[in-house]
């Protein structure tokens, strides 16, 4: 079940691409939504820009953290029906808005050819500052620039076409997570256990939390209430941008 306060997104798409900065970003904000997409037959691909090597809460050696978090993200993806996870290998905590990053995201868009892209909001969320990690905002802005104009313009990054044979591709809509402009909510009540399974795959990040499910449930319940779902339901919120 979905509810929206503005123009509605497509009911179903064949392919969706989720572009996020770190392993676990997609799971905290969107794993329930992704589970509803895969259950409906949408082929979902994850593109994770960093390996999350600056994360963690224990004494795991830094050189082990990146590979560990890749494996955790792959397990989390499987929990919600996602079969393909791509990693771009950029350094965690040091992302900048560069032409290289735009090109690399545009490349994945042209390869996957999604009708829908999910990414983080490029706007700072002052009421919930933890959502506005600099890497999140950088990936959100880079992805929006890759969607428009880079991926759809055959003359942008011409090497993608000339050297790699990747034809231009137009994405129809972008879903922004952790946005102060959220206007669309997805009811994830019936798939919440899949979301929790995905989140619990990130042991290096959440293993120290005593009540992960309680914290996330409270967050989703408030989201559902704020965006108009019936009492007792759980929601994930997005700002949907129509780009075609």
UniProtKB/TrEMBL annotation:
This is N-acetylglucosaminyl deacetylase, LmbE family. GO terms for molecular function: hydrolase activity, acting on carbon-nitrogen (but not peptide) bonds, in linear amides. The keyword Transmembrane does not apply. Keywords: Zinc. Gene3D superfamilies: LmbE-like. PANTHER family: LMBE FAMILY PROTEIN, N-ACETYLGLUCOSAMINYL-PHOSPHATIDYLINOSITOL DE-N-ACETYLASE-RELATED. It comes from the Bacteria. GO terms for biological process: glycoside metabolic process.
């Amino acid at each position: 079940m979905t509810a929206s306060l503005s123009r509605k997104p497509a009911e179903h798409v064949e392919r969706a691409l989720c572009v996020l900065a770190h392993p676990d970003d997609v799971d905290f904000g969107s794993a329930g939504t992704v589970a509803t997409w895969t259950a409906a037959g949408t082929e979902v691909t994850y593109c994770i820009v960093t390996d999350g090597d600056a994360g963690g809460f224990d004494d795991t050696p830094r050189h082990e953290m990146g590979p560990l978090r890749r494996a955790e993200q792959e397990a989390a993806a499987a929990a919600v029906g996602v079969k393909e996870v791509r990693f771009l290998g950029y350094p965690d905590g040091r992302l900048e808005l560069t032409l290289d990053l735009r090109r690399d995201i545009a490349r994945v868009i042209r390869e996957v050819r999604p009708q829908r892209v999910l990414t983080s909001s490029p706007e700072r969320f002052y009421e919930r500052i933890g959502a506005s990690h600099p890497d999140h905002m950088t990936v959100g802005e880079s992805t929006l620039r890759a969607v428009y104009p880079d991926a759809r313009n055959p003359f942008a990054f011409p090497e993608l076409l000339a050297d790699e044979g990747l034809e231009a591709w137009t994405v129809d809509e972008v879903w922004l997570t952790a946005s102060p402009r959220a206007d669309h909510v997805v009811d994830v009540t019936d798939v919440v256990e899949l979301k929790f399974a995905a989140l619990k795959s990130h042991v290096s990040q959440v293993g120290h939390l005593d009540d992960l499910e309680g914290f996330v449930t409270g967050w989703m319940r408030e989201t559902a209430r704020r965006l108009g779902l019936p009492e007792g339901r759980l929601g994930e919120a997005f700002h949907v941008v129509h780009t075609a």
